[in-house]
Amino acid sequence: MLKNCKGQLYIITSAILFGTMPFLTKMAYKSGSNAYSVVFWRFLFASLFMAIILKGFYGRNLLIGKEKLIQIFGLSVLYAVTPILLYISYNYIDSGLATSLHFTYPISVMILMAILFRTKMEKKKIFCAILCIIGIVMLYSPEKHAGMRGMVLAVISGIVYSLYVILLEKFRLKDESVMVLSFWLCLFASIEVGIFSILVGKLRLIGNISEFSADICLAFFTTVIALVLFQKGAFLCGAVMASLLSTFEPLTGVVIGLIIFNEEMTWKLGMGIFLILFSTVMIVLPVKEKRKNKK
Question: What does pTM read for this prediction?
Answer without folding.
Answer: 0.88
